[in-house]
Design goal:
It is a single chain. With 415 residues, this protein is mainly α. It is built from 15 helices and no strands. Helix 3 runs antiparallel to helix 6 and helix 4 packs across helix 15. It starts with a helix and ends in a 25-residue tail after the last helix.
């Protein structure tokens, strides 16, 4: 697990180095902000259309081999970009093609890495592993963003892509040395899986997801929170630079506090012993109410006081939601369930910002924060009321049909 954590830290740092310079590269090539959005959408599009197939593949293929190959392929794509940039041969066509290829590979790499991280720890250590994974992600993001500026200044834009390629190869080189906990893998013998070809279908994962009320409730809570409560890069930026009369430096301070809150939330999330959808809902409602108060902030100082608990609540909620998502399905369906989650997450990821933008245009930054927070809290409250009237559903973990006790969550996905 320590080696996996180091590999994820390196990979996340490399990915954020590339992401930091990629938008600038698109702007340099086209001079168009719309083109920047297009490149991001092209890379995200495969998750919308083929994540179900990617998740099914992960359930069928040997996990360590899948991760090693997918990481190596992502490294090849990054090195190709670095070479094109260095030779000044990059254009929008090649950039979009490589972005699409990256998105396709990621539909397999994402769930494979998540489930491999699952297999590396015994049940008792899962909460700590969740916290480590979140800390690694946050640290990698901060380190990668900072290193990108240094790399570009000293070696040029291509250096960020080359560094990302090396980070993927590092992960691929670490994978063969990982030793999953045998009792934690929950994987059936290959021969047994081959005797059940019908289970390789992506539709089984979708059917399982739809039949599970707690997964559908988790999707609903996460969707409404993602659209109206987590786009702080947009809502708080407009609030700080508009009604609060701050500048880019002020928003940078807010972003730093958000990052600190995310790290603190990861530490607190590691102490959750039995996360549930109810936990996720209560945290989402609390975050919505904090957002309402933040939208009414009379000054930047008051906003900074509120931003920290907002970030903490969001981080703990993410940890709880991940635990529910990855411990609910039986072992042979987890890849497909993650594929379903990736698909619906892409839907609200692409549709959320435009909806929020329309709300901000109609109600302003303060109105969007207040209305969004109230909508989240009211939706969660209504859902809990309906569930109470309809009777409670047991949520205690039970052994899956193949003997696995689904009580683990992923340490994290190699970026």
């Amino acid at each position: 697990m320590r080696w996996w954590s180091v590999a994820n830290l390196v990979s996340n740092a490399g990915t954020w180095m590339q992401l930091t310079v990629q938008n600038l590269l698109v702007l340099h090539i086209t001079g168009s902000a719309a083109a920047t959005g297009l490149s991001m959408s092209v890379q995200a599009a495969p998750a919308l259309f083929v994540s179900l197939l990617g998740g099914a593949a992960v359930d069928r293929w040997p996990r360590k081999l899948t991760v090693a190959v997918s990481q190596a392929l992502l490294g090849v794509v990054a090195f190709t970009m670095a070479l094109l940039v260095a030779l000044d041969r990059i254009d929008m066509t090649s950039l979009l093609v490589l972005a699409a290829v990256t998105g396709v590979i990621a539909t397999v790499d994402g769930p494979a890495c998540a489930l491999l991280g699952n297999d590396l720890v015994p049940v008792a250590d899962v909460p700590s592993a969740i916290g480590v994974g979140a800390l690694v992600h946050s640290a990698g993001r901060l380190a990668g963003t900072a290193l990108a500026g240094v790399a570009v200044a000293l070696l040029g834009t291509g250096a960020a892509y080359a560094a990302n390629g090396l980070s993927f190869l590092f992960v691929a080189s670490v994978v063969p040395f990982l030793r999953p906990v045998r009792a934690a893998t929950g994987q059936r013998p290959v021969a047994e899986v081959r005797r059940e070809p019908e289970r390789a279908g992506a539709r089984e994962g979708l059917a399982y997801f739809v039949r599970r009320p707690r997964l559908m409730a988790l999707a609903g809570i996460t969707a409404i929170s993602s659209v109206f409560g987590r786009n702080y890069g947009l809502t708080l930026a407009v609030l700080v630079t508009g009604p609060l009369a701050g500048g880019a430096g002020s928003f940078g301070t807010v972003s730093t506090v958000l990052a600190i809150g995310g790290i603190l939330g990861a530490v607190l999330g590691a102490r959750l012993r039995s996360p549930s959808v109810r936990t996720v809902g209560l945290l989402a409602a609390a975050g919505g109410l904090l957002q309402v108060v933040a939208g009414l902030s009379p000054s930047l100082a008051v906003l900074l006081v509120l931003v920290l608990p907002m970030a903490v609540v969001e981080s703990v909620s993410d940890t709880a939601g991940t635990a529910v998502l990855q411990t609910d399905p039986p072992a042979h369906l987890r890849g497909r369930v993650l594929g379903v989650w990736s698909t619906i997450g892409t839907v609200w990821g692409l549709g959320g910002p435009p909806l929020l933008g329309l709300l901000m245009q109609a109600a302003g930054a303060r109105g969007a924060l207040v209305a969004g927070g109230l909508l989240i809290a009211a939706s969660v409250g209504a859902g809990m009321l309906l569930r109470a009237r309809g009777g409670s559903e047991p949520v205690t973990a039970v052994p899956a049909p193949d003997g696995d006790m689904p009580r683990r969550v992923a340490l994290g996905t190699a970026a």
